[in-house]
Amino acid sequence: MITPSALQKGDTIAFASPARSISAEQIQFAVSFFEAAGYCLRIDNEVFAVENQFGGSDALRATHFNRLLADTSVKAIISSRGGYGSMRMAEMLDLSLLAKNPKWIAGYSDITVLLSLINHETGIECIHGPMLNDMATADKSSCEMLIRVFGGEAPQYHFAGHPMNRAGKASGKLVGGNLSMLYSLAAAKMLPPTDGAVLFLEDVDEYLYHIDRMLLSLRKAGYFSNLAGVIVGAFSAMHDNSIAFGRNVEEMIREHTNTSNCPVAFGFPAGHQPQNLSLILGRETAIEAKNNGISALTQLSI
């Protein structure tokens, strides 16, 4: 994999809205945060474009993102928010521009689409971490960790073990992100291979039966057959029907990853919640899952 250059004070971070629209007011905290950290910001008018729920038309969002990819003065691009829209413009992107000029791309949720494609098609690492709209309500450690990863730090985390963990140690390239987006990528035959990988999963605002359907479909398609390990973030605001589905998220993930019999670590502090710690997708990653005590995730230093 290719690691973009670490950011220095005075470098330029560009904002982009490849999915849902956003207002200037909604990103004001993020603007102040990055400026206080010593970065220059590029905030084009396209960041605030609106077409229905999207941040402008598909063509506008893709054209703007391509322009940022091509600009050698831009050292990182961070998405304003998720929602929906990345799949609609993904195939309009010219990722050869990024291959010629590697830079950090950061986001999560719907932006999983872009991070996955960039990892697979260019071999460039990306950051799964907070977006502009989240930063006002994110905990301080999440915002600060994003800055540290931009600056070249390799994440190392310790977090509480979980009684549903499948205990063990594993290592492999970190892939994944939002489960709904991975499911959509697989349906479009755009999901990268997962063999030998450590798979990260998170999601929000889904019915339990739909979580099961997505996991089952990915398992039957072979994406869970040869995993090295699984790291599970927040599955926030889950819903159930009046007649209970009868299984929780932990039970479903354990069941559908049985084909690999790999370590599974639940409770990693990332996803749609105030604590959303940054991970480098594409980076060699070691995990240790414990039922009691402390689990760990360590990403290789470059």
Structural account:
- With 302 residues, the chain is an alpha/beta fold.
- It folds into two domains: 12-150, Rossmann fold; 156-299, Glucose Oxidase, domain 1, CATH 3.50.30.
- The protein is 27% helix and 23% strand.
- It is built from nine helices and 13 strands.
- It has helices spanning 28-36, 58-70, 86-89, 96-100, 112-122, 140-150, 179-187, 208-220, 249-256, and strands at residues 12-16, 40-42, 74-79, 104-107, 126-128, 156-160, 168-178, 198-204, 229-236, 264-265, 279-281, 284-289, 294-299.
- It has a seven-stranded mixed sheet with strand order 6-13-12-7-8-9-10.
- A hairpin with a 4-residue loop joins strand 12 and strand 13.
- Helix 7 (179-187) packs across helix 8 (208-220).
- The longest helix is centred in the first third of the chain and has 13 residues, at 58-70.
Order of strands, main sheet, comes to 6-13-12-7-8-9-10
Low-confidence stretches: none
Q: What class would the helix/strand composition place it in? A: alpha/beta
* Largest pleated sheet: 7 strands, mixed
Provide the number of structural domains.
Answer: 2
What Rg do the Cα atoms give?
18 Å
CATH architecture of the largest domain: 3-Layer(bba) Sandwich
Query: What is the helical fraction, as a range of percent?
Result: 25-40%
What's the total count of β strands?
A: 13
Percentage of residues in DSSP E strands: 15-25%
Compute the average pLDDT.
97
Q: What's the N-to-C terminus distance?
A: 10 Å
CATH class of the largest domain: Alpha Beta
User: How many helices in DSSP terms?
Assistant: 9
CATH topology of the largest domain: Glucose Oxidase, domain 1
Could you say which overall geometry the principal axes of the C-alpha atoms support? globular
**CATH homologous superfamily caption of the largest domain:** LD-carboxypeptidase A C-terminal domain-like
Order of helices and strands: EHEHEHHEHEHEEHEHEHEEEE
